[in-house]
Amino acid sequence: MNIREEVKRMKADSPQMAALSLEMRNRALEETARELESRKEEIFAANARDLQAAEEANLPPSVQKRLKFDEHKLLDVVKGIRELEKLSDPLAQVQLARQLDENLNLYRVSCPIGVIGIIFEARPDALVQISALCIKSGNCAVLKGGKETAATNKVLFEIIYQTVVGCGLPKGCLLQAEQHQEIDELLSCHDCVDLLIPRGSNSFVQYIMNHTKIPVMGHADGVCHIYVDEDYDMEKALPVVVDAKTQYTAACNTMETLLVHRNIAEEFLPEAAKALTEAGVKFRGTEEVSRYIDCEVMEEEEFHTEYLDLMLSVKLVDSLEEAITHINTYGSHHTDCILTENSRHAERFMQLVDSAGVYQNCSTRFADGFRYGFGAEVGISTGKIHARGPVGLEGLVTYKYKLYGQGQIVADYAEGRKTFHFQELSEE
Amino acid sequence: MNIREEVKRMKADSPQMAALSLEMRNRALEETARELESRKEEIFAANARDLQAAEEANLPPSVQKRLKFDEHKLLDVVKGIRELEKLSDPLAQVQLARQLDENLNLYRVSCPIGVIGIIFEARPDALVQISALCIKSGNCAVLKGGKETAATNKVLFEIIYQTVVGCGLPKGCLLQAEQHQEIDELLSCHDCVDLLIPRGSNSFVQYIMNHTKIPVMGHADGVCHIYVDEDYDMEKALPVVVDAKTQYTAACNTMETLLVHRNIAEEFLPEAAKALTEAGVKFRGTEEVSRYIDCEVMEEEEFHTEYLDLMLSVKLVDSLEEAITHINTYGSHHTDCILTENSRHAERFMQLVDSAGVYQNCSTRFADGFRYGFGAEVGISTGKIHARGPVGLEGLVTYKYKLYGQGQIVADYAEGRKTFHFQELSEE
């Protein structure tokens, strides 16, 4: 059977999946956690095959490290599943309860989105986390992982799938796509896939966004800025810029551009350059910046660059306004920070910078669902529709309106025989 | 200047638009209401030209009626603007306030989406309503109305634009696209338009959805169902099916398909047919239906049809489950109703039918922002991402995360020197 047919069957099963009780979803999660623990040797054996293939293919050490699924990783994912079990139900939440008229009661109630396609990087733990998030939120999921972890993913998927179907979840709850060409087939299923969540390289995510009519949640770029205002505090500023650039360079919330107010450039730039250089960072900047620090001179257009490496773009600005305009023009609307002791400046920056995260005096690296206390992270969105910034379980739900009547018709209201009285109902 | 360049300038102005105080947005609305009243003769004169052109072009009477902008319509739109003024601010609402750690405070705050493109039918009042909604919600808007009201729209737009810019709104707050070919140009502006809201015929909305990378909010089809359950009440059922089919046939929330439980077909169908026939409705149905009522026999695949006319598809089903499957297969996920006195059946229907609105014992025509008490309606969405069902002002806003720190860095948390304590902050 091809992916399209399987996804169609999944779509047909999705209302059943949406109707599962919280108890049933949590039991499926708990059984999955147990099964993963009890069948761990199978998983490790499959992972050993992936690792050997990676070594033979001479994949970079950083990639090989990511593929590894050992006792420690297993412990992590099992812990993650059990934390997810404890989270309150994202479904059946009453978001609005209103009496429109006598015996005509409207409820807005959260429900799953339906069928979600998730295309993720070569990390076996990702497959487990994503499956668990979809089960908790009552969504059916098509999973496509990186080919470098094919053997591990196959075993993990089999364990999860058998377990949850054994717990009574519908057969169409989860589906694994194993072939790369199946991605394009999935992208064409806009009649039965409700949402796509791609993770991976910028160019890959961009490809997905450009080749499907299915709504996409995620981000292609993370060009994050820190603007050092005239009224900054050196003691706070230095650790923050070092952390934002170097704490984990490969992350999307890493600072890529440092903007510095011209009046403090002479004082701040050499100090910042010293601290960052010690952490291994190299610089690119405007002609003017090169007078203060050792850097490669760059062109204006290059300020769009996301390095994901120990490299930083630097530019001087004349004002808070210029910094804001630069960020809105060259940024990716992800996370941007102002370092200032002036709360008026901070408010103006936060108001006018058009990004999912606007920060004062802290590292851009805080942009993360776990650090925001969401308990689970689906991804980070730079779109403004549906979900923005780090997205927790609520990003996997929508809502429906339930209206309970006793035979009411619209003509009575349109022709003035009855009128709505709109009264909020207390929670039941 | 072409649309692309104008929209780019609008995008640059959108943070200023987002930062306007509620007072300023409301004052712009109030001044607009006054200006429309005081310059009404200009508007009526322009409208007379549109009406004359429509008559000369022999447009159908229903269209000609929709084009009319008279004293009554003016009163309506001015009243609408003043009601919008009274609505509470959709912006700057604190949706989450959480202390992540000492002096590290996270807020999720509502803000405008940014630049919205709205393509609407030939109804001059729509231009005023849409502009007002965007002003209230701090969004910049590109407006493209139907060509049949070009003269009226031009005057209305000039009055609104001059007034609000006179009140201090940024020059890029509103833009009118007057040429049809500008639509395609607008569809390609995915780098500066954040959301498209198309209104109009199904094929037009479908065209928009298929030809842009910009997120689209709206609906192409409205294939709404009523399922008459075994446990129905005849007294409630007859008025509801008549209202749902005939109260306003051109609306998207009109019933297009009637599903009837086989066990009650003999009793219910002739009665329903009588009441509907009196209201002018004709029928199409399966072979079996034609044994009970006078109808044209139709094929299964035709149950996708949206008539928007005095025509109804009829089918018998064996069970609640069959009705649900039919609706999920042939419906458009808009609004579907069950007529039943059995609350278990109602709950099952509402749970499993995958539509924006799921009703018990009332007309599908209630699916409307005003009837839901939203005070203003942006449109009705059959998508599940962002907004679903009738969409009020909240469909024009997103949110951003504001994080206030005192120099915190992620390394301290990643390396265990500090831990998050996640504590909800009381509203300020």
Would you kindly provide a brief summary of this structure?
The structure is a homodimer of 428-residue chains. Chain A is 40% helix and 21% strand. Chain A is an alpha/beta fold and 428 residues long.
Quaternary class: homodimer
Count every helix of chain A, treating DSSP H or I runs of 4 or more residues as helices. 14
Please state the CA-atom Rg of chain A, rounded to the nearest Å: 25 Å
Strand ordering within the main sheet of chain A: 10-9-11-8-7-12-13
* Largest two-chain interface: A-B, 80 and 80 residues
Mean pLDDT of chain A: 94
Distance between the termini of chain A: 46 Å
Count structural domains of chain A.
2
Low-confidence stretches of chain A: none
User: How much strand of chain A?
Assistant: 15-25%
How many beta strands in the DSSP annotation of chain A? 17
**CATH superfamily membership of the largest domain in chain A, which one?**
Aldehyde Dehydrogenase, Chain A, domain 1
Assigned CATH class of the largest domain in chain A: Alpha Beta
Structural class, judged by helices and strands of chain A?
A: alpha/beta
**Which topology of the largest domain in chain A does CATH recognise?**
Aldehyde Dehydrogenase, Chain A, domain 1
